[in-house]
Design brief:
This protein has three helices and nine strands, in the order ααββββββββαβ. With about 170 residues, the protein is mainly β. The longest helix is centred in the N-terminal third of the chain and has 7 residues.
Length: about 170
């Protein structure tokens, strides 16, 4: 199954029709936002590899796991707020995003390599995170906004807990 077939199978033919396929590169792509919010999705198939999208909105579902194939996708803005995600795959931390919104989930632990993630906006607020990895200090040069409400501030590396390092930090 590919991304177009999966979208058709969940009743989103209008999105399936907007996705193009480049036979030479084997890449599926769309210029439009792929809004799959509020569909009651509990899991995602491994169809997102070789996919290019500007905005992938999967908010307000019941997704528990981020597929590892997301690390092979090109996505500027990944929105997965208000789900039931418990962990961030290590593979995702080697990607480049404009924004990653993972607020209001059930994330308890962050991967040690989270500092490899390249993004301007990172939202992790309203999760159950008890400890932030030291590697997060390496991504502060890229982060413009870091939302970490409900995270124990004493667990943050000094470089992040110093509010002069990031344009906007929300506790």
């Amino acid at each position: 199954m590919n991304i177009k077939q999966w979208l058709s199978s969940i009743g989103k033919e209008e999105y399936a029709d907007s996705i193009q396929f480049n036979e030479e590169s084997g890449v599926y792509w769309t210029d439009e936002e792929l809004n799959l919010s509020n569909l009651g999705l509990t899991e995602l198939p491994e169809v997102f590899d070789h996919f290019v999208v500007n905005v992938l909105n999967l908010s307000c579902n019941k997704i528990k796991k981020i597929p590892e194939t997301f690390s092979k996708m090109v996505c500027r803005n990944l929105i997965m707020s208000y789900n039931e995600i418990t962990a961030i795959p290590e593979e995702l931390c080697n990607c480049l995003f404009n924004a990653v919104l993972l607020d209001n989930n059930k994330i308890t632990d962050l991967p040690e390599n989270l500092g490899n993630l390249r993004t301007n906006v990172l939202r992790l607020d309203c999760n159950n995170i008890s400890k932030v990895p030291e590697s997060l200090k390496f991504m502060i040069s890229d982060v413009v906004r870091f939302d970490c409400n409900n995270i124990d501030v004493s667990s943050l590396p000094y470089e992040i807990s110093d509010p002069l390092c990031i344009e906007e930090i929300r506790w």
